[in-house]
Task: structure prediction
Amino acid sequence: MEDLNLKKPPKIQVLNTEVPEISQPVCKIRKLTDIAEDPLEVMDDDEIPYMTSRKSRLHNKTQLIGKHYNPLISPRDSLTLPPIDKTLLFYQKFLLGLLKHPEIYRQFKEQAIKQDILAKINTPINTCRMSFNLKEPNRLKNIEVHSVNAYKKLHESDKKNNVLDMILKTPQAKQDNDKSQISLKSIKHSRRGSASRASSNSRRSSTRRIKIYKCQLDKTSKELYEIFLKISKTQENSHRDQRVTSEALKEWLLKRYPQEMVEVMAKAIVIEGNQNFDSWSSIIEKFINSNDTKILKFCFELFDFNKDKYICTHDAYYAISLDCSNLYDQDIVRIRESMVSKQSKKGHNQKMPKTHIRRHSTASSGDEEAKRVPYIHPTKPEALTVEDFLKISFIGKPQIFQDIISYLTGYNINSSLLKPESSCHTRRLSQDIVYDIRCQEELKDSYKSDPRYQYYLDLDEMMHKFDLAESEMVLEKFEMLKCPSFRKEKMISLKSTIEVWPTIFGFKCDYVSKLFYGILAGKNRTDITKMSFLKKINEIFKGSSVDQNKFAFDLYDRNMDGILTCDEINDMYESLPQNTPIYDECQILVNEFLSSIFGKRHKPLDNIDFALFSELIPKSLFIDEFIGALMTPKTELPRKCISFLEKIPENPNKIINI
Result:
């Protein structure tokens, strides 16, 4: 050894667990070996310490599986390990094949650890990669493997305890902490609903909402154009020949996907005749922007290899057997999870929950056929129907769909569909800008070039007429009342007033809401801007008692002609709830007209002007209710409008003590 100037190889120490001999083939499993630095050191199986020397940490751990093994292996013989038992060759080939699908392999490993099939070895920090020991191989004894062709036997087998159950019976895959990918599940479609859902607590929040946009391919993208040329098999300089046909698309897809999937893709991406680059881009855009239900049904057909309207264990196993470069591992894991969930429910004879769906006379034959498919397969209770597949929670779109789009366009569908809302919806509130200009004088110069600078100054002047708390309350109500249909300008419309004002006011009365909008909008009935809203509210808040009562008079004056007619009083009278304080107030005006009709007045009454109104009603109840509604915080809404509540009847048996 010294003459050959060779270093002695390290000693391999092995822990051998004794397994009793049984008539049927039983796997003899040995724990992972630890490579010691001293080749002459020999210890018993139960007394091998973990070597923590610096050199030993650099050695790779090796798992030895063999039927005949001598723990006292000489240094020269340790270079050649004993042969693997024939009964274990299948496991070796199976796990090596499973390594081609890292996502499924990782889930298989985690589930095997939970079921104590694999044992985890605790290793110190900064050592080699984590290793595992096989334990209790009898759990796999139901798998019949006796030849190299066991792969086909397992594929054709209908047994429940097969390898695929062991592989795919896993929890949902944990996603890597990739900041570039955003989970679509946690993202709701940001639709502009009614103004009552506006948030006042996040007025100064800088968080940008996420909205799902329709994908628009960049036709100037060089990568997209290069893929188009590859599909059409044309050169870049031959512009006349740049055409894509359905056959060319199939040939391009067959380079990456199996034949069964390509047939489904060709039906979904319809190409009629020869299509140029612009037409091709439009077809792909339409395919990407399909609704979620259509996309999931398309993916269901991709995994339904035997075309029996179910995705069963055989379909999932066949998908794993295909060499497709891990294009749908995440989908397979989620499909298997759904299978386990369906099979674990109460009994296999459960029926699909009945849903009352209106029957359409124009239903297609495909829909009728889908309805005839039993929810539970007679021989495969774990098989998924289209309805089951639609309930699976994928991470955004299914992985196979994302890969198809990336292969055809070069785009990441997540990054292309998820964009922050446009600036017109996320711009700062004008009152926030006014606050900044007011507090920081140096910002005035930066905003002078803004075309809205004069508007900010006018708004600041109007806000100075309120206290700070009052201005915040009033502007909060404006944000609630603004109409979502206006995008460039924030304004209040009649529709938004009728929808939102009852929540603020505390009582739903469309007639009163229309009158309130009429006062704010003026005679021209223009939409209410923030400036006009503040100006009118300031007259109510800061005006004298006469000005405030004039506001109540204008509320009755529907025609805005300065007089109250009999029809105006009658319409208000009929819209108010009976036996309420506000009803009694309106009753005073009604009685004046009745007195005139029956000749109880010395002079006939044709209408009521503001002077007579102030004489009859010195202070209207509408004043306190409107001011109270505008000064109530949003967190305390909806409020109770006391003047519109029914009065408590007095007890006739009440004894009055004199």
Notes: Residues 428-464 form one domain. The radius of gyration is 39 Å. DSSP finds 29 helices and six strands in the chain.
